[in-house]
Please model this.
Amino acid sequence: MKHSQTVGICLCLALVGLCFLPWTIIPGRDITVSGFASAGTHYGKPGILMSSFAGLASLLFLVPKIWAKRVNVFITAILLAWCVRNYLVLSVCYGGECPQQQAALYGTLLVAAGILLMALLPKIPLPDAAKRS
Model:
């Protein structure tokens, strides 16, 4: 794709933005969990790792080398796996209290899948057939 690198960088920025929005709300304890704020729970701050991988993927989108494109596929696959893990951990009911999932939690899954798709479709210039012969 012609614009896959630009779209991939924009999606990485969108993923970092989604980390600041609320992902789940636990109504029994009045707790709002986001990527960087999970006070009152034992979830930690999953947005830090997501933002780190998104930043690394953005840098690799900018590097016009074949090794960078291959490493980017690996990094974005880990990013998608981490987003799936966050979805599974944050959407499970604990002790009879079921959290209310917010749109940003689903958005992280969709955006991470889009980042992986853009990493799988890099813009790589191919050598001309005349140069090979």
